[in-house]
Design goal:
With 241 residues, the chain is mainly beta. It contains three helices and 15 strands. Helix content is 10%, strand content 35%. Strand 9 and strand 10 form a beta hairpin.
Length: 241
């Protein structure tokens, strides 16, 4: 990537308020943080909006935080996840030959016994001590080889998924202390059951503490935005939407 392109495609940076305490690349802070866009170029939607041209920008990379436009904007790749990264996915597999380096993801080798896999999903750092550790939650994957499916169990939630299908959304909560916790949503894609088990996990998308289910208006707005995109242009990865 050239230096000029790096300047154009710079992701946002986190801004901590005065007096706040950061716990590294983690969702835990003593006060709320904000984000600042670092893009140096002038995007086309700024030009069209300045001329009052109706503008819709959907899932374009490096558009977080979303900007005011003469229309609507839905941020795409680059929205921070619960771990404070640009979207860390997970990949669990029993394949011992998986040695490819995952870009932006976390490969977790697993083994199964009696069609049962006991593993973990990793959240933000615990924020304690000089050497910080990732918080984690137990994840159980029960394989049903007779019908090429698997059941995912995570924090008292269980869903059975067929091979090549996505699970529903799981809502999970990581606790750092009795008074400090953070929630997220995630889901799983059962890539294969045999000869090796392979499961893709979406990034942990943050949910504000105490948040309530989305209002019908919000759901309708998101559906309308996605509905405006031709099917052939929609992302194959459903990690965010």
């Amino acid at each position: 990537m050239t230096e000029a392109l790096r300047e154009i495609c710079r992701p946002q940076r986190r801004v901590f308020p005065p007096g706040s305490r950061s716990y590294g690349p983690s969702a835990f802070t003593s006060r709320a943080i904000s984000y600042e866009a670092q893009r140096k170029s002038v995007p086309f939607w700024s030009l069209t909006s300045a001329q009052d041209v109706p503008t819709t920008v959907i899932r374009c990379p490096i558009t977080f935080p979303p900007e005011e436009v003469h229309g609507r904007m839905l941020s795409g790749m680059g929205v921070p996840d619960l771990r404070g990264s640009q979207g860390t996915f997970f990949y669990w597999t029993t394949d011992p030959l998986t040695k490819k380096k995952a870009t932006g993801g976390k490969v977790i080798p697993v083994s199964q016994k009696d069609n049962r896999i006991e593993t973990k999903i990793f959240g933000p750092s615990d924020g304690s001590g000089e050497v910080q550790k990732d918080l984690s939650l137990p994840l159980v994957i029960t394989i049903q080889p007779e019908d090429n499916s698997a059941t995912f169990t995570l924090q008292d939630q269980s869903y059975t998924v067929k091979e090549k299908e996505w699970s529903p959304w799981f809502r999970v909560t990581f606790k750092r202390s009795f008074f400090s916790s953070v929630s997220a949503i995630c889901r799983f894609y059962l890539k294969s059951v045999s000869p090796e088990v392979a499961v893709y996990g979406s990034p942990l998308n943050k949910v504000c503490y105490g948040s309530k289910p989305a209002k019908p208006r919000d759901v309708n707005l998101a559906s309308t935005l996605i509905g405006n995109v031709p099917r052939r242009m929609r992302s194959a990865s459903a990690g965010y939407i």
